[in-house]
Design goal:
The chain has 25 helices and no strands. With 497 residues, the chain is mostly helical. Helix 13 runs antiparallel to helix 14 and helix 22 runs antiparallel to helix 24.
């Protein structure tokens, strides 16, 4: 059985929920060379294989660790890591995306320049973060936060320097090595964290696992990419890098502000345990969203090859919307139905409040998947500032709603703030229509609406699930599923020939 799962073609057949990802890339590359289609197929296979196995590891790991350390300690770690991830996003300036997206032949000097920039940015970001810790500690007002955050902040240069070899592997579509390194890092994290947690290390079990994971990933990435770092300073190249990456980075800086709502607002007004509940709900949804993550990750590299053909870009966005809803929606709905029984059984009764906020966050994530390809298509056309404008609208709604609702309603207030962000997607639709074209929302929108109602069966009643059943039985839905499966089989036969 293990051998069966590790054969890519058989894995695709066994996990048919991921069929759409590969069907999409088959469609995207009709008319291109066989080697490109095969590269994308194989790259996507390895990413989904890594994500699929990662789901199993993460579920087991989150289950054991959260049950042992409890909501409060997990909340402290979640608060510190959320701020660290935002710091990482600020510091890396989108340089990895520039390296992957850069046109022309691969040049070693470009990688050396990126290495030099990232090193300086990592050291500078680390210093500023440590100096800002007293202010952060005073705001979040969580006991034990400062010491955990300080140890994480010291790892910023290590994390940023991983970007150069990672970009080299992804530029060459070598997702097999990327997937293996990430999977091994995940295993190392839990192998270190488990024994520490069971010996009473509490939140430091998570911190220790994280540090070992970063160090081993750094070593494996440089070895696998066959890159030996060097220092370089070419002012023209620096301007070129920052000219592209600043727009992309500004977009991500704004978007990643949403990760700060939990530690800075939920933490301040509802406490460490509430931060833990929200973080666990987000973690569960992230685990279930592995197809969405894999799709976005390779979309920058693949859609970039269609940037000269607007019609195909629009069709790709339309196709991608339906694929992501089909892949993600049923998983989120199933979890929503099962969590009231699974949370007390698996995580312990202390974690039951997670159920209160899960459906709201799941709806926000599902809606994001509907518009995921919009931002990818705009990015490859270098419409970075337009995506940034959408992010500003989205975050303004989220922050404003959370600031008003969390102090009054706690966890549920955070959930309603997530729902309020749905109005912001009008902006990304406007920019896509303006610069690329108008995608067809009819079928994907119908699937989204059915999944949305089914997420809230405990609030609305089980009648809300009837729409999901009806949509699943529609001839259009059945035909789309058949088309996706047929496309996948066609790609598989071509890749094997």
């Amino acid at each position: 059985m293990a051998e069966y799962l590790f054969r890519p073609a058989c894995f695709l057949e066994a996990f048919s929920s991921n069929v759409g990802l590969f069907a999409l890339h088959h469609w995207l590359f009709q008319g291109t060379t066989m080697s490109l289609r095969t590269q994308v197929l194989r790259g996507g296979t390895y990413l989904v294989l890594r994500q699929g196995l990662g789901v199993i590891i993460s579920l087991a790991g989150v289950l054991l660790l959260t049950r042992v350390i409890g909501p409060e300690k997990y909340g402290i770690y979640a608060a510190a890591t959320s701020i660290f991830l935002y710091l990482q996003m600020l510091s890396q300036l989108g340089i990895e995306v520039y390296l992957v997206r850069r046109e022309g032949e691969e040049q070693l000097g470009v990688y050396h320049q990126a290495f030099t920039l990232l090193l300086f940015q990592g050291l500078g970001g680390m210093l500023l973060a440590v100096l800002a810790l007293p202010l952060l500690e005073k705001w979040v007002n969580l006991e034990g936060f400062r010491s955990v955050a300080q140890v994480l902040f010291l790892g910023l240069p290590v994390v940023l320097l991983n970007q150069v070899p990672m970009a080299r592997l992804e530029r060459n579509l070598d997702y097999k090595r990327v997937a293996l390194i990430e999977l091994f890092g995940q295993l190392v994290y839990y192998l270190v964290a488990f024994p520490m947690a069971f010996r009473g290390a509490g939140v430091w079990a998570l911190v220790g696992g994280w540090w070992v994971q970063q160090i081993q990933s750094l070593a494996l990435l440089y070895w696998s990419a066959n890159y030996r770092p060097g220092f370089s300073w070419d002012l023209n190249l620096v301007k070129e890098m920052l000219g592209y990456s600043t727009g992309f980075s500004a977009s991500m800086w704004v978007w990643q502000l949403r990760t700060l709502v939990n530690p800075l607002l939920v933490g301040r007004y509802a406490g460490a345990e509430a931060v833990g509940y929200v973080a666990l709900a987000i973690r569960i949804i992230d685990i279930l969203s592995f197809v969405k993550a894999a799709t976005w990750r390779i979309s920058i590299a693949t859609l970039g090859r269609l940037q000269g053909d607007r019609d195909r870009l629009v069709k790709a966005v339309t196709e991608g919307m339906g694929l992501q809803i089909l892949a993600l929606g049923p998983l989120l709905v199933a979890a929503s139905w099962l969590l009231p029984w699974l949370i007390p059984l698996v995580f312990g009764p202390r974690w039951l409040p997670v159920v209160q906020v899960y459906a709201f966050i799941a709806l926000s994530n599902l809606t994001n998947s509907l518009f995921n390809m919009h931002s990818s298509a705009l990015y490859v056309l270098r419409r970075n500032w337009e995506v940034t404008a959408f992010h500003v609208v989205h975050i303004a709604i989220f922050l404003g709603s959370a600031f008003l609702l969390v102090p009054r309603f706690g966890l549920v207030g955070y959930g309603w703030a997530e729902v309020a962000t749905l109005a912001g997607y009008v902006a990304i639709h406007f920019y896509l229509v303006r610069y690329i074209g108008n995608p067809d929302y009819r079928l994907a929108g119908l699937w989204w609406a059915a999944c949305t109602a089914a997420l809230f069966v405990y609030q609305l009643g089980w009648w809300a699930a009837l729409g999901l059943v009806a949509v699943a039985l529609l001839p259009n839905t059945q035909q789309k599923l058949k088309d996706y499966i047929a496309s996948l089989r066609g790609v598989k036969r071509e890749a094997q020939s």
